[in-house]
Amino acid sequence: MTDKTELNLTGAKENKCVWLVKVPRYLSQQWERASDKGEVGTISIAKKQGKPEVSFRLSEDLTSLGAAGEKDASPQVPRDHPFGMHAVGGQTLLTYSQSSTDALSLEGTVVHRAECTPVVNDNYMKLKKMQIKECTKCPRLSQQLERAITTVFKPVANHDFNIVYEKKKKSEGKMVRAERQVVLDMLFSAFEKHQYYNIKELVDITKQPVTYLKEILKEIGTYNNKGPHKSTWELKPEYRHYQTAEGT
């Protein structure tokens, strides 16, 4: 079962003709401030060279953006609004009204379309500046907290990466530099077992600081930047056979 809405066609029987006019938002807001019996403005219709000239003039009591009747408020809403007339274009446009009980009534047939535009003057420019300023304002929201927030933005005494760095620094600081020849002997002995080592493996073998170890490696070794053994060290060709084979 579907709900049916009755349509009052009294307007069609009376053959009412209406104008469909688009108005600026600020103008409709000013109209809403008018009293029940108040006048919102006047419309003048004239002809110029056979063409209709229509304009709307807002009531002086509604030109203020403040409460009705306050004339000292600034800026003032423009009063004069000429109409830009448009043809209906062969369309059949109807207007309806809806009551508080959701009943629909046909008000009439649209015979003219128009656009109500303000005259660009000082009042209009001040109004636009105020509207732009209002649009750029960030909305502020106040919220009452039930309890104090203690976990957000809590300062950290020391970050994890700093802790790792300090441990590494202390570990290297405990390493005592051995004599150069002793380190060379350890390196040559290691490279007899394997051809390639990364720096961490060589530090574990020699127990030497990284900076000191790299100084020695640059003299006897080559660092691989690419290839299958990327990021590893190997001996230079002249050191790969540093021991003379027996019988030679």
From TrEMBL:
Coiled coil spans: none
A Gene Ontology term for the protein's cellular component: transcription factor TFIIF complex
Keywords associated with the record: DNA-binding, Nucleus, Transcription, Transcription regulation
Top-level taxon of the source organism: Eukaryota
A Pfam cross-reference name: TFIIF_beta_N
Domain TFIIF beta subunit N-terminal: from-to ranges: 16-93
An individual GO BP term: transcription initiation at RNA polymerase II promoter
Major place of residence: nucleus
Sequence ranges assigned to domain TFIIF beta subunit HTH in this UniProt record: 176-240
Keyword Mitochondrion (UniProt): no
Xref: CDD domains: TFIIF_beta
InterPro entries the record matches: TFIIF_beta, TFIIF_beta_HTH, TFIIF_beta_N, TFIIF_interaction, WH-like_DNA-bd_sf, WH_DNA-bd_sf
Family: Belongs to the TFIIF beta subunit family.
UniProt protein name: General transcription factor IIF subunit 2
Natural source organism: Takifugu rubripes
Gene: LOC101077836
